[in-house]
């Protein structure tokens, strides 16, 4: 049949073209999921081999040398692809393979012009069988790592192709008459040649099957990893929720521990307006000769003292309030002022000089009660560090804006904290006080971190310890 070989090569080329499109789809995903470029090179070389084989009869005899070289190169590229499945391809190995193929092209062209058909068959059969043996070896190495059917199938197909090439060689050697080129082959040599061509297509199919398996396995592994990440995130969310509940409970406990300071301050503060109201009331009741303006002045004083007492009770309610845990806009300047109003009487009783410098209307986002507890805890710790110390006793509080953060520093001129202990002061149950529980600073740091800020300790310019709170500034104070 005329043009039978050309029709067969055309059909083979169309089949390989469809497989090439399939192979190209593997390179559309993430870079780390793509197969070796040797896979795509194998299919490109296979397509070129089919095209040049058809061009031999229509264009120039030189294309037969190119077709044979590309066919052998396809098998070599297949071996490199299989090698990439179990080890990394080095540029040196790829370059060496390319140089070998260049030598093969030169030899093929020389033999086309100067050698017989039998010699060309011998050379082609030996070179292609050598590269098929390489494919079998690399597939066996990959099979040692992964016992997969695709690898077994590839070894079987490569071995079949090798056997068919050697069988064709044996039959050609036994023949007494030979054609001038492979396109003139008939009988068993042509049958073995075309059958070996079919095994080459099956080998390409095995490569596609393995690459598809790798991609599916990677996708399945990613799904499992994503599921593990989702479960880990759920566990983390539960742990964070539990942490927030614990912080809230400990904050309430810390409020209870601070009640002694608060109540002593309130008693001292309430005593003054109550005594003043009693004195003015006695004057109003027992002084009959008071003028109208004097009586009016005493009544206004009673109202002022009553308002002072009410303001003190408002401070008590704000401290004891257990509102919702949702964050809201908080004026840190007001929080600091309220905390100072609570501890000032205790500072005065212990003759502690307070140096206060607070910027007005500095706003953050958080829980007012928790932030007030932190400020009170830092002030109480500074007072405890000073009340037994020598005079003069100084406590400094500064609140200012630093870039996009609010910065609150509480420092004193006490004995300070050894730098080697700075990291430990925030550990749970670590305390430098004989009667301390070791929860105050740990809880304060946890609260500040939960607000997106930081609480650190360092040396004070006054000579003692300095605690610094940094909180994100809210847009209202920007």
Q: How many DSSP H or I helices?
A: 11
The overall strand count is: 7
What percentage of the residues does DSSP assign to strands (E)? 5-15%
Order of helices and strands: HHHHHHHHEHEEHEEHEE
Shape: rod-shaped
CA-based gyration radius: 45 Å
Distance between the termini: 89 Å
From the coordinates shown, what is the CATH architecture of the largest domain?
Answer: Up-down Bundle
Strand order of the largest sheet: 2-4-5-7-6
Low-confidence stretches: none
The percentage helix is: 55-70%
According to CATH, what is the class of the largest domain?
Mainly Alpha
Q: What number is the mean pLDDT?
A: 78
Structural class: alpha+beta
Report the sheet with the most strands, covering strand number, pairing sense and barrel closure. Answer: 5 strands, mixed
CATH topology of the largest domain: Rhopdopsin 7-helix transmembrane proteins
Q: What's the domain count?
A: 2
Explain what this protein looks like in three dimensions.
The protein is built from 11 helices and 7 strands. The chain has 478 residues and is of the alpha+beta class. The protein has 2 domains: 4-233, Rhopdopsin 7-helix transmembrane proteins (Up-down Bundle), CATH 1.20.1070; 326-478, Histidine kinase-like ATPase, C-terminal domain (Heat Shock Protein 90), CATH 3.30.565.10. The strands form 2 sheets. A 5-stranded mixed beta sheet has the order 2-4-5-7-6. The chain has a two-stranded antiparallel sheet with strand order 1-3. Strand 6 and strand 7 form a beta hairpin. Helix 3 runs antiparallel to helix 4 (91-114), helix 3 (62-84) packs across helix 7 (187-286) and helix 7 (187-286) packs across helix 10. The mean pLDDT is 78.
